[in-house]
Write a structure and sequence with these properties.
By secondary structure, this protein is of the alpha+beta class. The chain has 1 helix and 8 strands; from the N terminus they run H-E-E-E-E-E-E-E-E. Strands 2-3-6 form a 3-stranded antiparallel beta sheet, with no helix packed on it. The termini are far apart.
Length: about 150
């Protein structure tokens, strides 16, 4: 009799576990389906965005100079010529990359973000008096929607 009760208890506890296993299986399948659906939506938006034509303005840096020291700081200034004739927007983001040399420290490569405007954009970056610009370049020009024909 005790054995039958023990078997019934085991059986009674074993029976509810089966639906829980199925619930766990179905919840993991539904989670997987949700992730796949989200990935599909992201991919579809990327394809749609890729189908739209994008342009980038043409930029050149000129008249790069250092100011005289003021309070142990110098300002590197330049004019960025911007040809945004292909862009439908009137402003956008870009960055200037620099390699900074320092008398008492290691060389440092960094980038400073700026907004471009049609025709010309004046830029200014602050340096300590013992620092110099070894090299600079235009980097990370944000794409803009193309102007219609």
């Amino acid at each position: 009799m005790l054995k039958r009760l023990a078997e019934r208890r085991i059986y009674a506890f074993a029976e509810p576990e089966t639906p829980a296993v199925h619930r766990q299986y179905f919840s993991s399948v539904s989670a997987l389906m949700s992730v796949l659906m989200a990935a599909l939506l992201v991919f579809a938006q990327g394809v749609q965005a890729a189908a739209q034509p994008v342009c980038k303005p043409v930029m050149t840096v000129r008249d790069a100079t250092f100011s005289e020291p003021i309070n142990l700081k110098r300002y590197w200034t330049a004019v960025v010529d911007v040809d945004a004739s292909r862009c439908a927007t009137v402003t956008g983001l870009f960055a200037l990359g620099f390699v900074r040399l320092a008398e008492n420290g290691p060389d440092l490569e960094f980038a400073e973000p700026f907004f471009w405007h049609p025709e010309q954009t004046k830029v200014r970056v602050e340096f300590w008096v013992d620092e110099a610009v070894h090299k600079y370049w235009i980097t990370d020009v944000a794409a803009c929607p193309c102007r219609g024909n």
